[in-house]
## 1
Amino acid sequence: MKLIKPLISSLLLLALIIILNTKLGSIPPLGKFFDPDSGFWANAETAIPDSDVFSFEDLEGEVSVYYDERRIPHIFADNEYDLYFVQGYITARDRLFQMEMQTYDAAGRLSENLGDRTLNRDLQTRRQGMTYGSEKAMDLMKNDPEIWAAINAYSDGVNSYISKLSPSDYPVEYKILDFDPEEWAPIKTAHLLKNMTRTLAGGSSDAITSNTLAFFGNDFIDKFFTVKPELNDPIIPSSKKWDFDPIPVQAPDSIFKPASALELKNFERPEGVGSNNWAVNGSKTNSGFPILANDPHLGLTLPSIWYEVQLHAPGLNTYGVSLQGAPGVIIGFNENAAWGTTNTGTDVRDWYEIKFKDHTKREYWHDEQWKPATMRIEEIKVRGKETVLDTVIYTHHGPVTEVRSQVNEESETSYHALRWIAHDPSNELKTFFGFNRMSTYDDFKEAASHYVAPAQNFIFANNEGDIATWISGKFPNKWEHQGRTISDGTDPLYDWQGWIPTEHNPNVKNPERGFVSSANQESAAPDYPYYLEDDYAPFERGRRINDLLAEMENITKDDIRNMQMDSYSYHAATILPNMLEWIERESLSERELSILSEVEQWDFYNDSDKKGPGIFRWWWSNFYYGIFSDEYGTTNASLRYPSRDRVIEVIKSEPDFEFFDNINTDEIENRSEIVTNTFIETVEELTNAYGEFGDNWNWGIVINNDFDHIAFIPGFGKQNVYSSGGSESINATRESWGPSWRMVVELGSEVKGWGVYPGGASGNPGSPNYDSTLESWRTGELYELKFMKEAPKEFLYELKFSSND
Amino acid sequence: MLLTFLILITAFLLNLILPWWSIAIPGLIFGYQFKKSAWLSFAWGFLALSLLWSGQALYLHFSNDGILSTRIGTMLGVGSPYLVILITGILGGLISGLATLTGSMFKNNSSNK
């Protein structure tokens, strides 16, 4: 057969085409991927986009979107349906992949496209009731005509964009991961909003506090977790007097101890998730009008977590940052007022030990009787594998997680139910829509009063000269320290017995000191009659902001901008002089002494060109763990570590604190020895990591400021940004966390704003606009925000939308 | 040479409207028409698409200031964006070379005595 050779050749050709058209492991289909016409090359942006015209029959009128030189969209519409439709469309146009990833993650559906490597994450998401919470949110939003109309309009807009896409138009991440965009739906907005709650109120230390209480006892808990640092400077100053009678709540006689030492996996929420905001009134500013500032601290990613936008429609003109998947502006200003937010961190997430009747888990004990549990089947599709069905048991507290002992394998499994504010119906957008349109303090108060979660310290300033803050959210009315440890799921006294009436939430308006501020610290002074939380951020940023503002006069926007970049470390100032006093210089080598003198000369500012910050940070960390890790290491149970500010107070006042001793050695170590030994250790570690002492020890390098791509695709982020800052400084940049947006707004007859986020409007890694503002952010520059009163004459390009005629 | 040129032009036009593997079609057809020897067919077919694809890639690389190709280079672990361009050319060339070879084999075998 003469046809053998050509047939074999044909088969080889076919095989090669098939192989190059198939995803192999994490390698995308190579032929498709490298095709210059429709593969990743098609995403290489070669010119600024052209102006264009689109028709969609759903639209009611005409909409114009003007893009300024930073490619920020300014949407001008003549009705709200069109406005939110187009907001959905253009957000998808820039950030579709990000929109989908966030909502898949929040819905526990990553595995559908990414395979079984994300199965555990999806299972956790479902078991914690994220999808359950989204459904409850939807129920509430459906009953709010304004919000329901807006999220549907937004959804229509996103879908109009997606429906016009051909595979070569897909964002490059789809081509790498080899899947297609799916149709958008209003519930995805609910998923996105619940994701905010997970990010900002999705951690709890109940289990580790229970363990620590059992392990170290009451005195340890009181000393480190109950007593507050002297230097605490609460958000609502103690000058505020509370003029209501608090609703009483009944506490149990003694605190519940859960069965044995236990482990709970939470979404890790490293320090750095927090923020700063402040507003000064006209008495302190140069202009005589208030100035408001906000810098939310979140994960630093590319593309940025935020998307700048202006929304202009009848009765509405607002500018600020938005989230990808929800209509409206989340942080920003309008023609009359400005607002900002920081995370409160109230304890709205509690775990309850459940006593089931038997292995069927159909009934559980509560309030002296057996109550029925319900089952919810979560279906998780897994790409390339069989669908996984997970049965989650729900009690009246919430969904149940199985917990095994970390300490004793023989121990029986425990069951913990999660009571979490994310499971409660919520309509966050109502608050933000209210902020977008507000002018007076009463408008602000009214909008904030509807807010449920995640609890936020909202700050306000307006043209009338008012400044205010409301700590907003729906808070359970708890007895002192309720929910700090694992609760007794059988005893109604441990349930959330009621809610704090919103009017009783901590708040202050026009305080005497002339400014309001928050930096995730203690919500209110000890005289506030309700219990909210015991685990706030350390005092440093809050106190530094208040110290500076108290001194400042004739404040301008540049003063505020400089404040946002302030890298002073109160933390170093309160302990480093002592460490330098305690260290035993006789034990140090020449080299170590010379490095020590570098630290001695440091001025406590976490600036990128200094070597002091890096050395101090490592030294403090080694010192801290040197004190605690020997005792903490004697059990496998996860324990809670005390906050640094309280530890500093204790070690300064107690030279004989028993934890100084390293229990693994025969001698009794003291404070000086640990300080000295850990300094020597630090010098060695830094040398191993960064080489000989020199500019490579500069904080700009040691800070390790990286921006990862949102799906961690290598090459799509930005590594080793030479930054200043620290978690305890106002400029709270650190590793992959930090100010994700910096905004300063000057109120007045013409409201003006300045801002920056690190990244760019475009979510396309092939665009120069993807990371174009990173450098400005790094150096603390702010762009003037083009807040347009009417349609501009000059712009970079324009997109026009109308219905089919 | 003519063979290469024809494959290149046709592949360019086809790929504008058809999926990536349509670049195999000109090789099959023209490989059959030109009935060159196996290795020459492969070589000319390879040259056609490696020139076309790396040419297109190079153009996009420069027009984009190398932004995306550099990122893809890091992602794939090859380092340089020029390697990315090279790989692009090689992939296109391989398909087309094999297709042209296949085409020529049909003609050569069926026209035997």
## 2
Amino acid sequence: MAKHHITATVNGDDVEFLCETEETLLDVLRDTLHLTGSKEGCGSGDCGACSVTLDGRLVCSCLVLGCEIGGRRIETIESMAKGDTLHPLQQKFLEHAALQCGICTPGFLVASKALLERKAAPTETEVRYWLAGNLCRCTGYDKIVSAVLDAAAEMRKG
Amino acid sequence: MSAMIAEHDLSGYVGTRTIRPDGVDKVTGRARFGADFNLPGQLIGRVLRSPHPHARIISIDTSQAEALPGVKAVVTRDDFGDQPSEFIPAGEMMMNYRDVVRNVMAREKALYEGHPVAAVAATSAAIARRALKLIEVQYEVLPHVIDVVEAMRPEAPLLHEDLYTAGVEPKPDKASNIAKRVEITLGDIDAGFKKADVIVEREFKTQPVHQGYIEPHAALASVSEDGSAELWCTTQGHFIVRAHCARLLGMDIARLRVTASEIGGGFGGKTVVYLEPLALALSRKAKRPVKMVMTREEVFKSSGPTSGAVVQVKLGATKDGRFTAAFAELKYQAGAFQGSPVQPGVMCAYAPYDIENVKVIGYDVVSNRPKVAAYRAPGAPISEFAVESVVDELAKKLNIDPIDLRMQNAAHEGTKAAYGPKFGPIGMEETLNAIKKTEHWNAPLRKWQGRGVASGFWFNIGGETCASLTVNEDGTVSLMAGTPDIGGLRASLAMVAADELGIPYDKVRPIIGDTGSLGFTFLTGGSRSAFSGSMAVVEAAKQIKTELCARAAKLWDTKPDQVEFEAGHVRHKDDAAAKFKPMSIADFAKMAGKTGGPIGGYGRINAQGAGPSLGTHLVDLEVDPETGRVTILRYTAAQDAGRAIHPSYVEGQYQGGAAQGIGWALNEEYVYGADGKLQNAGFLDYRMPVASDLPMIDTIVVEVPNPRHPYGVRGVGETPIVPPLAAVANAMESATGIRFTELPMSPPKVLKALKERGLNKV
């Protein structure tokens, strides 16, 4: 079968690509667009390492097909820092040592940003349940949750 | 960032919370992990795996696959020469390459579901997958055995016809699945048990659990026409990967350059090779780069979990609480090939205690499961779970506080361990004291809530280690280490280098060198990388300081003993020589060419004196009597770090180990069907703790300095997974009155136990 011709917006840039029907958005991001910040930990939507936003909604990019994103807007970890300035979440992850190996970090950051866009002052429990779809095997989540709460507080200060 | 650095004063960076130098790359998605490397013209490699847990391979026909357009190479057992059965040192590990070559690619038999049988490289993943379907393998399916006790029976299906139990006299005349019997003895346990007023004897059972790193195994190999090769892979030890691959492929070690990618978790599971030799063999055949990445299902079915086990424990004490004798028998599953961590399990079982009479026996047993790999303090969590559960039961029987009972019997400096050595300073008593002093220990509990405490021991290791420091033209320093950085190593080593050389932390730029850049460096494991890496950095810095002093002496026309290195400068010792302005490293860097050439140091050491790290954990939990679900309410982990180089990453080790231990205790297990096939090879069904399963994990960093390390450092990475299993089980007993002896204490098991006792009503 012929490949699909797709145009979409990724991290604010117009992109155009061809993809097979069975290729996932994650495949397209990593293999076609060379945006390897989104990681594949499971390919089944269980680990959240491939988290991106699709028209502002948090999704596992391994559960979206590349041919579904025509005309839509994707944001990945690669667009989180603005110029030399890290997003407060990125900065707090560094300060709190909220990463050890770092493979899950892009997914956690994208998911946390989506949370704080919806809820400026989440409770610890709300952070924990929002991030329950992101697996981390190194940290025990303690410093990740602290970093998100701290970033939220800082962002509220403006 | 500035707030963090402000903590630093003249006393140095060690002990402060710096920002890790590799951090920005990791929060921006820039860091390159195993699957993030690509080369022009690369092929995609895929593995055909056995669908049977045990089968003789009659024939493999690859001709149709090879004929498929886009397929560039196919490899099978025929592409790997056989290896003799002998144990060869690979760093501090002993490898039997006869087994390694068979685990990488099945030869006579497939020994577990997921055992590689063939591999293909094609121009796309889709073609590679199609090619796998065209490979015809004729199997003779054999009876299989999964359970460790069943595998030990004389009538059990035999995995290896030539495996005779080692360590028993006389040598057996029949092959069996018991690869090895080990034993350690101290004193006389029969006499010890006679002195006991109370004896507790129990049998425990644990299930295999997977390390659960989020990054699947990945490798990219490129072999050139002259036989030299490059390999990029995610590994805990690229020098070990080089050693294994060179051996399996018959290459000169110098011709294989291995670069470790950023590693997305390992916990012991990335200390062996799986895809790497296959990618090299395919690339050698195809003469093109070959990239291979495992799926999560492959990770579960074909890479090493740790052992499941059956453990018997018998512990005796006087009525005033002194342990008189301790016995244990450990049966550990090794998976399809020998080499379970039963030996360290045996050695660690009673190591936290000072007991006169100890005997521990262990069996290493093969069965039709994936070959186990190291998992964080390999073997110790299993045996210490059993022992720490019995210590808790003994405390109840004697009506002694469980911390006091541990304190009364704690190993300390001078204690002769049953496994051999006499301990130097160790922190068992200090961690017990630290936990006892917490508010947590005395906080009130409600109905269905319970509190448990348990301790844990791990040896830690040193070993062969290289690190280099190069002073650049502008006075900045490049640091190169040979152990992959799995969780803050570069930060720790840069801090030590900055303190040694008296320069700002951000002027040291650390990288992990490839195998061509440094001498053989053993892997990141045994909680050794910060311990021995920092020792190698200290050695490299010493060389630089000596060299700079010699250069200054020449410049100032004085004797080398008249100059000294202090706080980043070489100074003249003689006050009268005030005319000589102290020279900084940057000053020397500027004139390096005129004073003797490039400046650098190269630490090449075999690090000795790794001090054991002991920990004590405290947990509160609540049991839901209607569902059997257990919720962790509160957790405190205390552990001896010797000296914490970077406290945040030390705490992170405690927290992460606790979380893995909680998963092991409550939910994680390999579930096999009667057909010998794994039924839960995915993260949905293999249930690791998520953020909503856990509370904050409080940490107490105890520091009993290790006298054999220049900064007092002990390895900290592994001990944290040892105490949680028993701490949780002891808390379960406290909440329900039921002594759970089988892991995991998952809801169905807990509910059944509650029902049996009529307790399942709110």
## 3
Amino acid sequence: MADRQIMNDQDIKRALARVAHEILERNRGVEDLVIVGIHTRGVHLAQRLASNLSEFEGSEVPVANLDINLYRDDVKSRMSPRIRPTRMPVDIQGKKVVLVDDVLFTGRTVRAAMDALNDFGRPQQVQLAILLDRGHRELPIRADYVGQNVPTAPDEVVRVRLIETDGIDEVAIVRAEE
Amino acid sequence: MSLLNAIETEAQPQIEAAAVRKRRRHVLDLDDFSQQEILEVLESAEGMSEVLHRDIKKVPALRGRVVVTLFYEASTRTRISFEEAGKILSADVINMSASGSSTEKGESLLNTGLTIQAMGVDIIVIRHPHSGAPYLLAQHLDRVGIINAGDGIHAHPTQALLDLYTVKEKLGRLEGLKIVIVGDVLHSRVARSNIWGFVKMGAQVILCGPSTLLPLDMLRPSGNDDQDNPLASVQVETNLDRALEGADVVMALRLQAERQNGGFLPSMREYIRRWQVTEARLSRANPDALVMHPGPMNEGIEISSTLAHGGRSVIEQQVTNGVAIRMALLYHLSAGGE
């Protein structure tokens, strides 16, 4: 069965440019902003958003990486997740944090990410930017910035590939096996 | 079908890794670890090390899990670092030692293990003076993960992993390095696990010490037939100066005085003269060579005091990294369910 492409490299580029503008509009610039990417692909998207922001606004925005595996509520059912180093180069106390991930699905990753953030300080505000929202939330969580909304079936697999990790920019839906 | 699987696993690399390999339940020695799995543990330890450097060292990963440390032998660093590792990950850690327990009333190791299992414990960390004791528990307990924290003269896998981690952290790689392990290799479970670990990671291991204290049976299990012998690359050199030529890592081992009744050494003085790792001897190694010791040290016997506390020594770093490695292993055994 063929994959169904949802976004190509140009779509992703435009979506990230628009999301960057929305972040600037909502926060009236980049003051007090910290972009926090969730491992693995969220980290690369955070980098891209941050470079968009500094390009549009002319000043650097700090970027941090977060590994949320130590905060999951489903350690036992996840198969051997690796722990990657969290890098929090700035104090997030009182800052406006924009969490970045590739796909928003059940919301459990975002919940874990908010717990993880709390261990580093108390941000003034936490916002959520997502490349693709596929629905099926299990928690009361929504994104502030969305690259694209795509209705999916729960058993479908959304595959995000990025140049940094996979050599190509693409989002596709793969229907899972019956 | 295989195509679809390939696509799915690409999207979820964690699931792919687990699908290829059966989930690990026990850590008994490094001989059954693949290079890939060792790399995974080292990578996770790097993530754990970041947690160790936070102001508030606590994450909820193993909330609700129970870890028992069962020590039939004295220990400072291994036991404390396992306890610290478990507590940072929010597991409940219960310490038990042979003295003061039912062992004194004659309870066997197996019955102690079954009792602990019946209490719903998730992981047992065991140290035992008899080689193979953790294997006995692993064989008979079906609901508990076993971590070997040192068994007799056989294995000490968590120490070997922290040594690999320390070397990789300091020198940036493991492959192709020249590792010299000096001293009482025969009685050293640390050395035996390190031999497996470094060989699997593609390093060149050289064992040095009096020939009475080298584990020739381990290196050549079937005589001189090197075919299918995974440890065929390990070299033996009794002359320390020759062994140290161009070394990247020098690991001194504790001369285990309690195990020296068998007439292995002519005299302590001769041992010190020929095999003590000193500043002068180290000049033959690479200029940035690391000096390691698994502890506890006999300063002035297997290693000179100036070297043990000098600039090339990473002995304290080894202890710090021990906590990160043990966090990674506790997590590694807990993550992923049936």
